[in-house]
Design brief:
heterodimer, A: Peroxisomal Thiolase, Chain A, domain 1, Peroxisomal Thiolase, Chain A, domain 1, cytoplasm (chain B)
């Protein structure tokens, strides 16, 4: 008999809010974190807009010692530590004392690539024959698991501490991995999250693929347009999100505040077959993943009140809606509400799943379904599938009971998770 | 720069690497960097880089091996400056 798993803590460092309160307000009000980036213009990027969290230097003092801040040049690590430590605190938990390890708690904190700016510094020094000048922190700032290792040391956690990586599904996959570890009784608590660096070295490859919008450099807040007919590509983003997952019994013993229950979910891969490629999804796999998530959670399609999609603002959005319709067997006015937070944070790549899971779960606490922005011109192919009222243009005062969240990524990988309002 | 000034400078370089709540006076010539001052051994390479920058000298691998105490570090700095 697997254990029930609940969410007791949330933390976020997003382009439109670097703490839970401001992020919640931004999602509620549709406030964008997408801005013009002069650095990208200087470097001749086609897309010169992006989502980047605003972290003031003195704000870092709340999370990093002055020694840790010396030579710190890994934005993903910074965002990840802020969100992870905030989530732990939000759950009412503390770091252990110097001689005590918390064997029952672990971390799954994913990333796509960590510390690219630090790595660039290192490459220059190495090429100059100056390897000895790298200092002691180059490795920990650039190893993928640097983020989980750093948080593990800050908090003193002794269960599994690792980093997963599966492109844009990373964050959602991590939450599911944490869920499974607790459900199977291998851990009492897991800090699950993901982070993604900011900057031209992360975003450049996508600009070169010509999948970023080039016609909104003068109008950045309107650039990210999921489900819109005028969607012109995804706006690159960055940041981190983190959730504390915990067995229900542990949460009850601690009398912790419970945001929601994780009912279950599924991950799979389309094998880059049947239309799936490195960059495009195999629709059969997407539909299977959603259906498996429902089956595993013991939820009927009709019970889903709201969906937080992957919906990046490329030409693939209508295909995603079609896949949801087919997987759920619902369409038109029977289809659940659906939203995409990428309209205000951009596509935060490896951090997308975790930031969006945090936003999804916040909808239970707020008793709302957050609105979409920039899709006043809903794509006609989408309107053939679902009714326009299912794509709220403003935040709805409607308390969802069950929400499905999915993320899809390069490599034809998929993840879908089912959250439910908590009822003892 | 006098020898005393150089010593104070060395203390200031070392101080940020001490575990929290340590004072400058705790850094004595006979203090062992790792065993007594509890500096993380990985940070010794950072101290060496800071010393190089502050005194405009270059330390060799053998110098690092000999740098066990604050006094050792001082001796190495003085010899490089001659």
């Amino acid at each position: 008999m697997s254990k029930r798993v609940v969410i007791t803590g949330l933390g976020v460092c997003a382009p439109n809010g670097v703490d839970l309160r401001s992020f919640t307000r931004s999602l509620r009000e549709g406030k964008s974190g997408i801005a013009f980036q002069s650095e990208l213009k200087k470097l001749n990027f086609g897309c010169q807009i992006a989502g980047k969290p605003t972290v003031e230097t003195n704000y870092l003092n709340n999370y990093f010692t002055s020694l840790e801040q010396r030579g710190l040049n890994s934005s993903g690590l910074v965002y990840g530590v802020i969100s992870g430590m905030d989530a732990w605190r939000d759950a009412g938990l503390e770091a252990t004392s110097a001689e005590e390890t918390d064997w029952e708690s672990g971390i799954i904190f994913g990333t796509g690539i960590l510390g690219v700016d630090k790595f660039r510094e290192a490459i220059h020094l190495v090429d100059e024959g100056n390897t000895r000048r790298l200092g002691s922190t180059t490795v920990i700032q650039t190893m993928a698991s640097g983020i989980s290792a750093f948080l593990g040391g800050k908090l003193g956690l002794g269960n599994q501490v690792t980093t997963n990586s599966s492109a844009c599904t990373t964050g959602t996959e991590g939450v599911l991995m944490a869920y499974e570890r607790i459900a199977s009784g291998k851990a009492r608590r897991m800090l699950a999250g993901s982070c993604s660096d900011s900057g031209p070295y992360v975003w450049g490859g996508f600009d070169a693929m010509r999948i970023l919008p080039r016609n909104f450099n003068e109008d950045p807040e309107r650039g990210s347009r999921p489900m819109s007919q005028s969607a012109a590509g995804f706006v690159p983003g960055s940041g981190a999100g983190a959730l504390v997952l915990e067995s229900l019994e542990s949460a009850q013993e601690r009398k912790a505040h419970i945001y929601a229950e994780v009912l279950g979910g599924a991950v799979n891969c389309g094998g880059q077959r049947s239309g799936g490629t490195m960059t495009a999804p195999n629709d059969i796999a997407v539909q299977r993943c959603i259906r498996e998530a429902l089956d595993h959670s013991g939820i009927a399609a009709g019970e889903i009140d709201s969906i937080n999609g992957h919906l990046t603002a490329t030409a693939k959005d209508p295909v995603e809606i079609d896949n949801w319709c087919k997987a759920l067997g619902l369409q038109g006015g029977d289809f659940p509400y659906i939203n995409s937070f990428k309209s205000t944070v951009g596509h935060c790549l490896a951090a997308a799943g975790s930031i969006e899971c945090v936003g999804t779960v916040l909808q239970f606490a707020e008793g709302m379904v957050f609105g979409n922005v920039n899709c006043e011109d809903i794509h006609p192919d989408i309107l053939q599938q679902i009714h326009r009222t299912k794509i709220p243009q403003e935040t709805l005062k409607y308390a969802p009971k069950v929400i499905a969240k999915a993320s899809f990524g390069f490599g034809d990988v998929n993840a879908c998770i089912i959250f439910k309002e908590y009822k003892p | 720069m006098t020898k005393e000034e150089r010593y104070t400078k060395l203390q200031e370089i070392i101080k940020p690497y001490l575990p929290e709540d340590s004072r400058l006076e705790a850094i004595k010539p006979e203090s062992h960097l790792i065993n007594e001052l509890n500096i993380n051994s990985a940070n010794l390479v950072d101290i060496v880089l800071d010393v190089e920058d502050a005194f405009d000298i270059t330390l060799e691998n053998e110098d690092m091996d000999e740098m066990q105490t604050v006094g050792d570090a001082m001796k190495i700095i003085e010899s490089k400056l001659k």
